[in-house]
Write a structure and sequence with these properties.
Blueprint (H helix, E strand, L loop, with lengths): L2 E2 L3 H13 L4 H19 L5 E6 L3 H9 L7 E6 L3 H12 L5 E5 L11 H13 L3 E4 L21 E5 L12 H4 L1 E5 L13 E3 L23 E5 L6 H14 L3 E7 L3 H5 L6 E5 L11 E4 L10 H13 L4 E3 L18 E3 L3 H7 L4 H6 L1 H11 L4 E4 L5 E3 L5 E3 L12 H13 L8 H22 L5 H7 L3
Parallel strand pairs: 2-3, 2-4, 4-5, 5-6, 6-7, 8-17, 9-10, 9-12, 10-11, 12-13, 13-14, 14-15
Antiparallel strand pairs: 1-8, 15-16, 16-17
Length: about 475
């Protein structure tokens, strides 16, 4: 089950329900400590030096509890109640070169500006540029608003307890939160709250996609038609097609502009490549169509734009639109129950809304809802940090996988191809939301695996790893 995104008051209610059910605070703190230690062990190596900063509240208790589980690590625990008095001890500990700092100074209850002494202490931590694992929330950050209370820890990873807090997903909080992880199995009762924002978890995809029947054949898994590639942008079409192959639809046909047909066709084997002409018709057995990657050249013919609008308005099969083709979308309604998907990055979403990227990023949920409403209640994959998947009504899902190294040209092409390859399969069309979420999560998970193995991976390797 995904995790709801909740506010501080809801978290307090959840804790009260847990204590009322007979669970003890001590047991939960112990389990949180184990989870913190597990993450810290993954971020370090045997014999590395870890500095724990513990304040006087429950957040400090969580950090202290991690100490007993940090096996084969050298640990120093710095108790911080008077930040001015502790500053010299902080400097001494930092001079020893810790590989990781565990931040347990303040929890989600902080709702007032920090004193100058606390701000100075936190800035001392930030200046060290040593990776920080923040417990529940980076100290100094308002977990409801996402605003720093004068100063806040800049964490590499934030391990929040139970469920993500609303403020941790705000753009203002991103520089402080770093990568957001959730400590779920810490002894809390079932969460009594729901939310329109849901945090995607790996276990949401247990058993998905379903096993294929032994007696099936390529006709069982659909035929994806892709219209992509123009002069100067043929690589986008190749990456899109290869991303689609990783989803394993039965057949893939790629229609490319004649000017780039040869370099595209020479790089693909199993994908059928055809030069696109105004009289071109999609294969009769097409089960989904993707339009847009690599169609940024100024000489893209008008009939291709007309075809895009026609398919969007009239086709009964899933239509996925990405990149330059987003600008060709009509405002007309699509057939009832027909699947429509767009995959804009913030700049493209801003163009669709006659807005700015800054406004989109400041209100990503609203932007997704507005784009969906404007274009026939389409499914929207709003790309970027913590990619959102949803539409005008219903729950919207925040993707939990991926890292900043996805910010490479071609990454989005691989994603659009992969998700279109999934949506071309008839069995996966009945639940487009689950299929889209799965595609986005797998795309990010592939990047996470690659980043763990090597720092200089490229998009071609991402395509190789997709879905693994």
């Amino acid at each position: 089950m995904p995790s709801p995104v909740i506010n501080i008051e809801q978290m307090r209610d959840w804790e009260k329900a847990t204590w009322a059910g007979g669970q003890t605070e001590a047991a939960v703190i112990r389990l949180v400590g184990q989870s913190v230690a597990c993450h810290a062990l993954r971020l370090t190596r045997p014999q590395d030096f870890i500095l724990i900063l513990a304040g006087k509240g429950h957040n400090g208790e969580d950090a202290r509890a991690a100490r007993d589980y940090l096996l084969e690590r050298r640990i120093e625990l710095l108790e911080v109640t008077d930040p001015q008095a502790a500053l010299s001890r902080l400097d001494a500990a930092l001079s020893l070169g810790p590989m990781l700092i565990i931040d347990g100074l303040f929890g989600v209850g902080l709702n007032r500006p920090l004193s100058q002494e606390w701000a100075a202490f936190i800035e001392g931590v930030n200046r060290s540029r040593i990776p920080v694992l923040a417990v529940d929330t980076p100290s100094g950050l308002n977990a409801d608003t996402g605003q720093a209370q004068g100063a806040a820890i800049r964490a590499a990873v934030t391990l929040t307890v139970g469920a993500p807090k609303t403020g941790l997903l705000q753009e203002a909080a991103w520089p402080f939160v770093g990568r957001l992880e959730v400590a779920r199995d810490v002894g809390l009762a079932a969460c009594p709250h729901r939310s329109e924002l849901q945090w995607t978890l790996a276990e949401d995809f247990t058993g998905f996609p379903p096993w294929r029947a032994a007696a099936s054949h390529k006709g069982s898994y659909g035929h994806l038609s892709i219209i992509a590639g123009s002069l100067g942008f043929h690589g986008a079409a190749v990456l899109t097609a290869r991303g689609a192959q990783r989803a394993q639809p039965g057949l893939i046909t790629l229609h490319a502009l004649e000017s780039v047909y040869q370099p595209i066709a020479s790089q693909l084997q199993a994908v059928m490549v055809s030069p696109w002409q105004p009289e071109t018709r999609l294969p009769a057995n097409t089960t989904a169509v993707l339009i847009g990657p690599g169609l940024a050249a100024p000489d893209v013919p008008e009939p291709l734009r007309v075809l895009t609008r026609h398919l969007w308005r009239d086709s009964l099969m899933p239509v996925i639109v990405d990149a330059s083709a987003l600008d060709w979308l009509p405002l007309d309604p699509a057939p009832r129950n027909a699947v429509r998907v767009i995959t804009p990055h913030p700049g493209e979403a801003a163009r669709l809304l006659s807005s700015t990227s800054k406004q989109v990023q400041a209100g990503r949920l609203k932007a997704l809802r507005d784009v969906s409403r404007r274009f026939a209640n389409t499914w929207v994959v709003l790309k970027g940090h913590q990619t959102l998947v949803g539409r005008n009504a219903g729950e919207v899902y925040v993707n939990s996988s991926g890292n900043p190294h996805l910010a490479q040209g071609g990454s989005g092409d691989a994603l659009s191809g992969y998700l279109a390859g999934l949506l071309a399969q008839p069995e996966l069309q009945s639940n487009p939301l689950q299929t889209l979420r799965y595609a986005v999560w797998q795309h990010g998970a592939a990047a996470d695996r690659l980043q763990a193995a090597r720092r200089n991976w490229v998009v071609e390797e991402l395509v190789e790893d997709l879905g693994r």
